[in-house]
Amino acid sequence: MKLLGLDFRTTEGKLKVFILVAGLMVFIGAASVGAIKVTSTPQFCSTCHEMAPEYVTWAASAHNTISCTSCHIEPGAINFVKHKMGAMKQVYKHVTKSYVTPIELPEPIKNEVCLECHSNFRRVTPTGDIIFPHQKHVAEKLECVECHAGVVHGNIEKRGFTTATDFAKWTEGVGRAHMKPQFTSTGMDKCIECHEVKDVAVTCNTCHKELIRPPSHQPAAWKQNHGQEARDNFLACDKCHSKTGTWVMNSRDPGVQGYIKNNSFCLECHAKNKPPGHTVDWRNSHGTKAKENKAGCLACHQENRIPDSAQGIVAKSSCANCHSRPMHQGVKAQNKHPFPINGQPIGKSCMTCHPQNLCNTCHYIGK
Q1: Cα radius of gyration (the chain)
Q2: What's the pLDDT tens digit per position in 119-141?
Q3: Among 42, 53, 201, 301, which residue is least crowded by beta carbons within 10 Å?
């Protein structure tokens, strides 16, 4: 029997057939390895124009030395083969232009993929300012991509930038623009939301190793001027301080005044620390000041008591605390004394409002 001029009946013919088949297998194997190697590079992914957004954002990311297959194929030879077989479907869609945008992953990247390179024993971020016990979060069955979904592609698919078909506009510059920190990092709101759902503390020192004041808070006169900034836009304050404080019922005032009186973070300072102008004799002269700037007084105080206010946190100073008392009513202008005695001795009832040295402002008490 002869095939291709080779006689299988002779030893020489059999040897030649063996060499031919072995050489063909080696060639096919080498070609397959080469093809696998080539098709596993990011550059090969970029040959499909519909993958341009993913390619340019990857190139601008901190993972640009890691191949696409390192993250998009789970560890193990079986997973590798399954992926390559499934990739033929993607090639068919590309050739026939039957792909659908946005291009989506069949399933999220699993922790096992990330842990091939990263350790789950890290407790702080690279900058060292945020405490983040990765091991504890992994133990709670949280997926890495729940927090780090944007580190490679800037969440472009979630943000709706891959639904269009004009892929030629995706240049390297566009890729860098989509990889800014606000698109790659997880915001504090997501951390707070997760902590609240799982009943975990949301205080600043739970997550932050060191609290850095924002640029707007760093000028030396900020403490004196921040009130005006709050009046202009107290909702900007609320972006952070709704998380740092708790809501307490102390006022039904609207706007910034109600916000200050009902946020425990503001009250930590405003209820405990008196303004510099509130000197010992302030009670004697505050009436004049109140007439000049009533709104200024009401920034901290209120005219009437709030029956269901939070005790122990809020300031215990409403105008009604003293001015609702009838003892000052009917004072005549020519009466030199602050209020008519009416036969009542001056005693503890007076001192509930007035300081003990008030008498010295008019009367000389000798030894």
Answers
A1: 37
A2: 888 776 766 678 888 888 888 88
A3: 201
> For residue 258, which phi and psi values (nearest 5 degrees)?
-65, -35
Does 292 fall in a domain? yes
Residues of the chain with pLDDT under 50: 312, 331-336, 342-343, 367
Among candidate residues 254, 267, 269, 258, the one with its CA nearest the CA of residue 224? 269
Buried b / exposed e across 309-348, counting CB within 10 Å, b at 16+?
A: beeeebbeebbeeeeeeeeeeeeeeeeeeeeeeeeeeeee
Residue 103's SS3 state is coil
Same domain for 179 and 237, yes or no, is no
- Structural domains in the chain (count): 2
Residues 6+ apart with CB under 8 A from 64: 58
Alpha carbon distance 298, 316 (integer Å):
13
String of b and e for 148-183 (b: at least 16 CB within 10 Å)? Answer: ebbbbbbbbbeeebbeeeebeebeeebbeebbeeeb
Give, as one character, the DSSP assignment of residue 318: B
Q: In 273-285, which positions are buried (b, 16+ CB within 10 angstroms) versus exposed (e)? A: eeeeeeeeeeeee
Q: What is the pLDDT of residues 198-226, one digit of tens each?
A: 888 877 778 887 777 788 888 888 888 88
Number of Cα atoms under 13 Å in the Cβ half of residue 319: 12
Same domain, 107 and 202: yes
Query: Minimal CA–CA distance to 136: which of 147, 150, 152?
Result: 147
Structure tokens at 326: 């009838």
The reply to whether 363 falls in a domain is: no
The dihedral sign for the CA sequence 306, 308, 311, 313: negative
Considering the domain architecture, whether residues 312 and 187 belong to the same structural domain is answered as no
**Structural domain range at position 266:** 227-324
- Phi, psi torsion values for 208, nearest 5 degrees: -100, 125
